[in-house]
Amino acid sequence: xxxxxxxxxxxxxxxxxxxxxxxxxxxxxxxxxxxxxxxxxxxxxxxxxxxxxxxxxxxxxxxxxxxxxxxxxxxxxxxxxxxxxxxxxxxxxxxxxxxxxxxxxxxxx
Length: 109
Prior knowledge:
By secondary structure, this protein is α+β, with helices and mostly antiparallel strands. The chain has one domain (16-100). The protein contains 3 helices and 4 strands; from the N terminus they run ββββααα. It has helices at residues 50-69, 72-88, 90-101, and strands spanning 16-18, 21-23, 30-35, 40-46. Strands 1-2 form a two-stranded antiparallel ribbon. It has a two-stranded antiparallel sheet with strand order 3-4. Strand 1 (16-18) and strand 2 form a beta hairpin. It starts with 15 loop residues before the first strand and ends in an 8-residue tail after the last helix.
């Protein structure tokens, strides 16, 4: 799925990703991500509180316990799948990063 943000449009509020799930920040607060070229809002992003960070750290520790017990071959499969997912969304991620940071997309042959 490719979702490009065009001038004058914004993404829905972006949620926190904790423990394998998209969740709302406990504070309910958000902040705007601004396109520096146009000063338009690209997206509203959930603002993590200290409690949210603590939840994320606890989830990461629990995940590491599972991860560390997996055989190397299985960890390799998971990492290769992650690489494939990132490559599938490379254009979308590059476009969003360009909007957010006002950095040009450099194509390398």
